[in-house]
Amino acid sequence: MPLRLPDKLPAIDILARENIFVIDETRGHSQQIRPLNIVILNLMPLKITTETDLVRLLSNNPLHIELTFMKLKSHTSKNTPIEHMQMFYKDFDKLREQKFDGMIITGAPVEQMEFEEVNYWDEIKDIFSWARTHVTSTLYICWAAQAGLYYHYNIPKYPLKKKMFGIFEQHAVRKEAYPIFRGFDDTFDMPHSRHTELHREDIINCPDITLLAESEESGVSIVMAREGREFYITGHMEYNPETLDTEYKRDLGKRSDVDMPKNYYIDDDPAKGPKVTWRAHANLLFSNWINYYVYQTTPYDITQIK
Q1: How far apart are CA 220 and CA 214, in angstroms?
Q2: pLDDT at 281
Q3: Of 106, 80, 75, which Cα lies nearest the Cα of 92?
């Protein structure tokens, strides 16, 4: 089944060139089917890039999905045209009375600040609380994962001596017990780009959350809560092949702490481009989340979500 997107969203043309089947809202309304309603709170600066990355992954499943893009009223994006925001994004205040089958909350470039210092922290807390009664399952990514665990479970984040930057091998804990890992290999790769981390001891000592995956080098990577109604992912499985390269070249020469992303370039040579090792598992992760924790769990009458 196709992914239903707002008319004229840039991702439609980009993904059509990749032979990914999506339809616009006008055509979608002519199809008699109850789609899964997924809302995305996109906190990343380059919103069009993040939209496209997430749409690419969500489209790789047989279910009919309708996307809504949420924005914060307390924060104005400086890196995305205002016309794009006005056309495709809705303030949280305009969506708070609705219910959604699933939600994705992205990372944000504020991880080196204390949570309470972030100028939209009060609104984010409101959204985190709202999601628990208005969304069947929520996927928190990178900074959102750290912020969500801090808000819901008082799990702190810790500064790293050096940026965690590159592709790192992950090991799933008892992967056979959790449908989110259905079809996974014993290990899988995950992109990371962050200056802070979670500590394993804090996670395993909290009885309300479950450590699902970790890495000897990059640490905690996936945490689950409320039997799959919340997933916290510290890395970026949604990243496209060029994202880390773009970030590396952007910062090279501008900062003194910029290292080449680990395990990313072929033969550690930027001129040879990236070796893509995470995309298959990224597609599995998102497909399994949609199938086992959204589609098979959400009520047919979306108003019954609680």
Answers
A1: 4
A2: 97
A3: 75
Average pLDDT across the chain, whole number: 90
**pLDDT (tens digit, 9 = 90+) per residue, 145-198?**
999 999 999 999 999 999 999 999 999 998 889 999 999 999 999 999 999 999
The span from the CA of 235 to the CA of 218, in Å, is: 9
Q: Looking up tokens 């290999």, which residue turns up?
A: 185
Q: Which residues contact 109 (CB under 8 A, 6 or more apart)?
A: 44, 45, 143
Evaluate the CA torsion angle 226, 227, 230, 236 in order and state its sign: positive
Give the whole-angstrom CA distance, residue 31 versus residue 270. 46
Are 79 and 45 a contacting pair, CB within 8 Å? yes
From 25-29, 57-61, 140-144, 283-287, the region with the lowest mean pLDDT: 25-29
User: ∠ at Cα 104 (37, 11), nearest 5°?
Assistant: 75
CA–CA dist 282, 279 (Å, integer): 5
120, with CB counted inside 10 A (0-12, 13-18, 19+), is: middle
Rounded CA-CA distance 235/237 in Å is 6
CATH number of the domain bearing residue 222: 3.40.50.880
Alpha-carbon dihedral angle through residues 74, 92, 142, 80, given to the nearest 10 degrees: -60
pLDDT, average across residues 51-61: 90
| Residue 134 structural domain | 3-304
As for how many domains the chain has, the answer is 1
Q: Is the pLDDT of residue 12 over 50?
A: yes
Stretch 208-222: mean pLDDT, rounded? Answer: 98
Give the list of residues 6+ apart from residue 164 with CB closer than 8 angstroms, or none.
192, 193, 194, 195, 197, 218, 219
- Mean pLDDT within 289-293: 95
Catalytic center residues: 142, 236, 238
Q: Structure pTM?
A: 0.89
